[in-house]
Amino acid sequence: MSFNNTNTDILIAGAFAAFTVDILVYPLDTLKTRVQSPDYNKLYTKSSTNAINRSLFRGLYQGIGSVVLATIPSSGAFFTTYEGIKSLLSHAPLPTPVTHSVASSIGELVSCLILTPAEVLKQNAQMVSRSHRAPTSNKIFDGNATLLALKKFNSPTQLWRGYTALAGRNLPFTAMQFPMFERLRASIHTYRKRKGLATGILWETGTVTAISAGSAGAVAAVVTTPIDVVKTRIMLSAADSEQPRGEEQNRIVKEVEAQGKDAKAEIDKARQAARGGRAGGLAVGREILRTEGMKGLFQGGALRGLWTAIGSGLYLGVYESGRRYLEVRRTGAGECAAL
What we know:
Number of helices: 13
Order of helices and strands: HHHHHHHHHHHHH
Mean pLDDT: 81
Distance between the termini: 16 Å
Number of strands: 0
Structural class: mainly alpha
Shape: globular
Helix content: over 70%
């Protein structure tokens, strides 16, 4: 389906779609992060019975502020790049699925540059437990969690740790999702036209897009769950990836010497931990496989599939409907039929 949209239309539609999804399905993303965390059993299950603790379901909107601020420009950047590259490659002798994969992949690389700091901060805020917050802080939208997560970072560069992991997850995801999505959407529209069911109204555009995107997204999400688990572990350890130095190192020396310990040994231990905190995605994946098996690599897979089915359906459904609405409003062409 082809729309005559300006870049402004695409930016507005993408931003509105991102905001809608962030508000509605963010709790599922928080649950997924907590399930994939290495501290899941310690923080969210009862050691005696292994039953889920109610704390798993508290503060489900922690960290949402940073994501809303970042996903609006990052989504606009993604769709502008995606539509631009797709249009550019439409004249090249490439199969349509390849065109969609290349366009979505380049769009993701641009989007991830904007999104990575917010994603790192968000996931660390999602893991802030109630005991670390102010006693009066029991609101579902908890800004204190974001501030507490931010205090863990000693350098702004730490917020960018995880770009390769985020891009490494999103690239195969979008490369799988968008060709499936475009093919499924085209097939549904063709079927409806052949059966005489097509109406061309805005509601039809949004519904067909949502079903196609949700179905394609759920499949791609489950397949890429191991990469998502690795990305989560890397981002949760981002704040611990700096080696102690300067005043921090002097503070550690004084503390360990006061305890009668070997200061040099403790500094070396902290540096080793920092090197481990900077482990690459492959090393993190191998460690998860070694200690937790294949089950560990697919932690949160069902939640990720559900979150993505709902999120992608809403995201692309709202995006396409928004583009259609803005085009009709701007041009006035076919207004009655389109709406």
